[in-house]
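Review form for a predicted model. The reviewer records the input and the model, then writes brief findings.
Reviewer: anonymous (R2)
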Amino acid sequence: MLVTAIRENFLEIVCLLDQLDAKKYTFCNPELSNATIGEHTRHIIELYQSLIENYELGIINYDKRKRNILIQTSIEEARVAIEGILAKIEAPNKDLQLENGVQKTNFSVQTNYFRELLYNLEHSIHHQALIKVAVLKYQDIVLPENFGIAKSTIEFKSQCAQ
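Model under review:
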């Protein structure tokens, strides 16, 4: 169920990528403090990559992710990275150690793979909400209905409508 939700979330991102050209993908948006859609997309991708690449080691540190500039400047590189994530995301739950800090570990806490997948999904939705703010100015882009909206918000609104 969780992996299915992540796959659906990435399909929403791919839907957006399919509608963007390189100029829109790399445009410094004032609405995003001059960040680009590509930078937000890279950030989403790299947190998942960090989790998957460090799964066997069992120590996750999102601060030490690679920061591949090609993902934020090339829509095709972003698509390839997403395909790579989706090909490797299904793994058994297991205990992990989550650390933060680049030069030295500032903090370490026990977690598990499923909890980190859920964190990455929620984190992705948060960044999609930011991306949506920048995309709204483009009349030619149609986002999926729930792009950038948390599942809990969707469920809450559904209950209010009844």
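Findings: Residues 2 and 36 are 28 Å apart (CA to CA).
Further findings: The chain is about 55% helix and 10% strand.
Recommendation: see findings above.
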